[in-house]
Amino acid sequence: MSAAAVIPRAGRVPIALTIAGSDSGGGAGIQADLKTFQELGVFGTSAITGLTAQNSVGVHGIWPAPVSSVEAQIEAVLSDIGTDAVKTGMLCSVEIVKLTARLLRKYRSSHIVVDPVTLSKHGSALLEGDAVSAMCTELLPLAELVTPNIPEACLLLGWQESDIRSVSAMTEAARSLLQYGPRHVLLKGGHLDDQAANETAIDVLVSQEDPSRHLLFSAPRIATVHTHGTGCTTASAITAFLALGMQMEEAVGSAKRFTHQAISSAVPLGAGIGSLWHAAHRTL
Ligand SMILES: Nc1ncnc2c1ncn2[C@@H]1O[C@H](COP(=O)(O)OP(=O)(O)O)[C@@H](O)[C@H]1O
Ligand SMILES: Cc1ncc(COP(=O)(O)OP(=O)(O)O)c(N)n1
């Protein structure tokens, strides 16, 4: 993405809505999503599903937002401003998952990217256990894309994490996730634990149109611990590129490059896992 893309364009600015949680540390959640939208020249709106007290060493508290407040935020945005694309992140509870699906159906939203956030990198639960099946039955059928990492894919499928130890197992899992109805599945390989993954970070894209075909998105693995926000940034960058009118394959490839640049310039803030630098694409 060139610097020209961050200059507001004449005419209507593309809009993206993020329905996600707040990360006080600024690296993930709503904060990562809005930074990404802005960097990519898309006007970001938000509905905050919950608050987290979070920093580089962990998640110190989670407070789901009242369901009525999430409803009022989404209604306020969609009934007046509208949107070209929607990203969902931390949805906290079965009630918020169901509400989100109901409102996205009501407003016939398109370009819905579901990041099925369940755990933070520090292992804190960001989605209640009984919300997983609601996500599969209510939200995934509406999704143009779902973007699980390996632990999330296993949770959605009822598999063990040890079941995905290779790119071919990732491909099989991605194909299995199509059963829930999303148009595309991007299974991210940041957590892949095999020989090849020491050098490359590989993601797999499969689509309902032709489930027998799969595309690999590969980049050199950056040797860093500072990867807080990689998942949120990937999903929100894809959402922004869809809002800008790209097709899915191009949007995923462009988002992979944007996120890779942001990891390569990550900021080692705090004593633990530092966060991505979303402005890296301006100078790299
Ligand atoms: N160290 C790394 N170097 C390069 N790319 C990475 C690295 N870690 C993760 N990625 C990429 O970042 C994106 C998010 O990855 P992943 O860690 O699997 O998701 P999550 O942040 O949701 O756990 C994927 O495109 C993955 O390939
Ligand atoms: C509020 C909030 N939402 C989502 C996440 C998970 O973000 P992700 O990009 O997957 O990054 P890590 O937590 O894995 O670093 C979060 N932590 N907080």
TrEMBL record:
Catalytic activity: 4-amino-5-hydroxymethyl-2-methylpyrimidine + ATP = 4-amino-2-methyl-5-(phosphooxymethyl)pyrimidine + ADP + H(+); 4-amino-2-methyl-5-(phosphooxymethyl)pyrimidine + ATP = 4-amino-2-methyl-5-(diphosphooxymethyl)pyrimidine + ADP
Signal peptide: none
GO biological-process terms attached to the record: thiamine biosynthetic process
Domain spans labelled Pyridoxamine kinase/Phosphomethylpyrimidine kinase: 23-276
EC number, as in UniProt: 2.7.1.49, 2.7.4.7
GO CC term (a single one): cytosol
Superkingdom of origin organism: Bacteria
Protein name, UniProt field: Hydroxymethylpyrimidine/phosphomethylpyrimidine kinase
Record keywords: ATP-binding, Kinase, Nucleotide-binding, Thiamine biosynthesis, Transferase
Database matches in PANTHER family: HYDROXYMETHYLPYRIMIDINE_PHOSPHOMETHYLPYRIMIDINE KINASE THI20-RELATED (PTHR20858:SF17), PHOSPHOMETHYLPYRIMIDINE KINASE (PTHR20858)
GO molecular function: ATP binding; hydroxymethylpyrimidine kinase activity; phosphomethylpyrimidine kinase activity
Top-level EC class: transferase
Naturally occurring in which organism (per UniProt): Paenibacillus beijingensis
The family this protein is said to belong to: Belongs to the ThiD family.
Pathway(s) served: Cofactor biosynthesis; thiamine diphosphate biosynthesis; 4-amino-2-methyl-5-diphosphomethylpyrimidine from 5-amino-1-(5-phospho-D-ribosyl)imidazole: step 3/3; Cofactor biosynthesis; thiamine diphosphate biosynthesis; 4-amino-2-methyl-5-diphosphomethylpyrimidine from 5-amino-1-(5-phospho-D-ribosyl)imidazole: step 2/3
Keyword flag Oxidoreductase: no
Keyword Ribosomal protein in annotation: no
